[in-house]
Amino acid sequence: MAEFNLHVRLDATVTEDVIPILEPYAEDNEEVEIAETEAIEPVPDPDVITPSEFLEIDCVEKFAEIYVDLKGHEAVAELSLWGPTADRFALPVAHYALQQIADPKLYEFHALDGQTTLVIAESQTELNQLRQEVPATAQN
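Above: the chain's sequence. Below: its structure in C-alpha cell form.
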C-alpha cells in the first residue's frame, strides 16, 4: 500500500502512452513508484484514455509537487487523486471553501498555491464527508 495514488487520464489527441510522462517521477526516487491496475474505470469520452499505470507516492510533499506539475501537462486530460492502493485520500479545495469543513481536526492540509489546498483524509468515509461539506464548485 502507498500513502497516495495519482492516476492520469490522457488526452488521446496528444498521446496514448502514459509511461514517458510517469517515468521521470519514479526514476531515482524511493518515494514514487509506477504501479498497474485494471480497477480504474475508463471515461466514456473517446478522446480520453485511461491507462492502467499510475503512481504510488509515499510523501505528501512529493505528491503535491507531482500533482501541480501534472495538472499543467499538455497530455493530461484529468487527474484522480485516490485509488486502490492508497492509504490516504486527497481533495483539492479552494481556500475560500476551507471554512465549510465542519471538523478540520479530521484532516491534514497542504497548501498548493495561493488559491488551492490539498485536504487529506485518512479514510474513504472521511473523504466522502469532506466532499459533501465542500461545495462542488470549490473542489478543484
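The longest strand covers residues 4-11.
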